[in-house]
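Fold this complex.
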Amino acid sequence: MDQTALQKQPLLVDPESSAGEEVAFTTRLEDFVHWGRKNSLWPLPFGTACCAIEYMGVVSSHYDVSRFGAEVVRFSPRQSDCLLVLGTVVEKMGPVLKQIYDQMLEPKWVIAVGVCASSGGFYRAYHVMQGIDSIIPVDVYVPGCPPTPEGIIFGMIKLQEKIQKGGIVRARDRHKLDR
Amino acid sequence: MLESSTGKALESIAPTPSKYMRLNLGPSHPATHGTLRIFVELEGELIRGMKLEIGYLHRCFEKMAETHPWNQVIPFTDRLNYVSAMMNNVGYVMAVEKLLGIEVTKRCQRIRLIMCELSRIVDHLVCIGTNAVDVGALTCFWYFFRERENIYDLFEAVCGARLTTAFTRVGGLYKDIPDGWVEWCGRVLENLPRTIDDVDGLLTNNRIWIDRTRGVAPISPELALEYGFTGPCLRATGIAYDIRRVNPYYEYGNFEWDVVTETGGDTYARYLVRMQEMRQSLRILKQALKDIPEGSVNVDDWSITLPPKEDVYNSIEGLMAHFKLIMHGIRPPMGEVYSATEAANGELGFYIRSEEEGAPFRCRVRPPCFAIYQAFPEMLMGQTVSDAVAALGSLNIVAGELDR
Amino acid sequence: MLEIDINWIDSKYPGLLAVAKEFILGQEPMSPEPVIILKSEGIRVVVPFLISSGERPMTTMVDLFAFDYLKSKLDMPERFAVVYQFANLMENRRIFLKVYLDEDKPEVDSIHDLVRAANWFEREAWDLYGVVFRGHPNLVRILCHQDFEGHPLRKDYPANQFQRLKSSTSSQGL
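Structure:
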């Protein structure tokens, strides 16, 4: 359900006005909330390695991620909602990543950018974590070594689609509701 | 000689309660470029003690090098100093070629030199850009990254990848540069001096920049030599050591360029050195792009480089050589060599031992940042936390190279 | 390996033989680099000489790393070795010192008080190879995480033997 779905809702017309101005449109609360959330993702770039340099290219003027509302990078987990893991996460860094993820407030999403974050990459080595999904849940995996900035933006758009489709309370947290 | 203002051994900050406040910077921090962790003991804003912790990006390069064939180590070398990947490629294959005892063709040498200088420019663009961001000058970052995009396009045309290129092979290159690339490169480099001048005008005589960087984290030349500094950080103290001048490789001895030095050894000096080095790299590139020697980029030895496909499909020798190379790999003779190149951060050395196996027996990387970062606490005694942030950017510590 | 080319050493590094003749075992035959093999006791004699001798001393320690010769095809004298590289950078004069160490007790004296650069390099050699540097003030892990067991760059440690760090983010030694 995207913007076109919203526009199909009936428009309320002001009966007092002679020009018949449109004063409101109706939609579902979920769609509205998701629309707001997906277009204002505040990323936390957890940059470790080469993918972080490509992410710097994404926020730069040529690829410009601010078209998607996500240019406000906040390095504090309390102020951000999308954790972008950019680069290899080694075993030593694992507890740090988990702590940052735990400190973020709901709703939060995780994008694993690059093959190193998704699955360890080509480092099948004693100190490299073979994918961050062994310690935190991941929403979108972006493959590439490093992925081009178009790839990272594609990952963010996929996350936006995922946000739009989901419930306000996400599926994996529904068990926490008192229903 | 500089001494720490507290007089105590810098490595041992006592775990017992102390009158100083402890602060932890990193490893996930906007200003630490990469995964660096710094513990500081503060008296107000002044740093009275500092302890560093590294290893947050230890990706086991040396172990991977021992378990992968000689040419398959090249992508791992890309990710050492990932900001200037080509230089690491060139450094590694130079060491292997020294083991093999071969000299690559003139065309290959020239192209590798061009790629190294482009990588050097790219590295300095990132270093100065991120250093400026830490201090608050965000505009320079955008300007420099726009130029980086242009150079990335050049890299992508040559080898298909923007950042981690894996362009060289033992005995040659992945493939020759495409037609029209040299003219395109010339056009890109015409725009670059203007951007460098723009940022120069914004920063070099800027009162705020000078206040933030002059006198910040200084180091004396003797101490720098004792710590093993090389590269722009050493040249900023006044010592004109550049491997390209002292022990030239490829054609650096034939071109006209200057070794850039400054005095003072502080952050401002390092910034000036890097700006000037970019201009010198442009000077080298202008000379290098003229009259690139013709010929093949690969050595004409089919036990080292892959034969051309026409020979593989049409001659039995080509087919056999191709098969042997793919199945057996190259086998450098027994030996241990050390080969160093002037990477963007300093002397990037490879000490490789071969035992005629398919993979190196030992491949040691001498990382320039390792020596430089070790001196960081010493450089910052008595300065403030914000100085630490400004100075860290100027040292260009790349965690991929530091931790390997 | 046991051949000492006295003329060569004397011409390249004058004065070295006078100071350290009894510690020099020979030259590395397989390397075009000037690699001199020392006894491990000789390090604390040779290094001060190198960094302070004459008008143009080799003040810079460029590199320090360890070797594991376990699966070597050749018959090496010991399993472990530590290589030091000193240089006078401006003149590009270099020297490599190699010290062979016993497999059961790979120990050598630390030179961190002679050359400041050695501190972290020795920690790294300890971390990855288990070579003990006697007298080092802080011989703890520098690259691998604090709960890591074993010395990963040794030849008998498999490359893909993973070890998860479970504990909190407190650092080592603090």
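The CA atoms of residues 38 and 99 of chain C lie 5 Å apart.
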